Amino acid sequence: MPRVALVTGGSRGIGAAISKALKAEGFGVAATYAGNDDAARAFTEETGIKTFKWDVASYEDCAKGIAQVEAELGPIDVLVNNAGITRDKPFHKMAPEDWNAVINTNLTGLFNMTHNVWGGMRERKFGRVINISSINGQKGQFAQANYSAAKAGDLGFTKALAQEGARAGITVNAVCPGYIATEMVMAVPEKVRNDVILPQIPVGRLGEPEEIARCVAFLASDDAGFITGSTISANGGQYMA
Ligand code: CAA
Fold this sequence. Notes:
Layout: E1 4-7, H1 13-24, E2 28-33, H2 37-47, E3 50-53, H3 59-73, E4 78-81, H4 96-106, H5 108-124, E5 127-132, H6 135-139, H7 145-165, E6 170-177, H8 183-186, H9 190-197, H10 209-220, E7 231-234
Parallel strand pairs: 1-2, 1-4, 2-3, 4-5, 5-6, 6-7
The structure holds acetoacetyl-coenzyme A (CAA).
């Protein structure tokens, strides 16, 4: 039986590249998505990877959804917490809803997902939890008090849980992408992207989703068994943590 990997937000952007990379490595892969049915359908048609719709911000939906994935594919060995949203606004314009939406998805979503696979991983004495944080959780970002707080929280979560998982054969690591050519980054005004962001990237270009997916595939592999609580930064030299 192949190992089973579940990728949240796994039908678009960085998540889609991760789902495909894990499938290419021989994992049985399931991808979650929150809202875009058309993109999910197209992704499944293209890749053969099954998608499941639920909101990672809901603990109950995660419990139900994970039970369904496990009934169809088998116990989850690898969890990639990738689902994330932005609500970028300077702090004086940021509404409580902007704060709550981002914290609930990008930080609490990790609790909701991981808590529902943790017991099984402990019982089976194997697991890989890979959290997609961000350069902006490491360095902070103008107009992202919510996002930077959540992504920094993801790193604390990673390091705490790594200590708990170690004896049970579970590794917990984080990847911090820099600015990657996805819809999320393309939503930043073009002028800001070209005049502010690009000049800050020493390699002189945005990253590709596949460059993040390869980091995740490595962390999911048996070769990475001694790596836990760590953060891989893949940002073209923009920030050296
Ligand atoms: N540092 C300092 N000042 C900045 C700034 C920065 N990085 N970015 C913008 N400003 C300034 C502008 O120069 C402008 O100043 P003036 O008013 O003096 O001209 C002011 O802030 C803009 O203020 P506004 O009230 O007009 O801002 P707005 O409400 O229109 O919001 C914005 C604009 C949301 C900040 C927009 O500029 C933006 O999206 N910036 C990019 C934010 C960003 O990098 N987000 C990351 C998205 S990708 C991602 O999150 C993935 C990942 O993990 C990397």
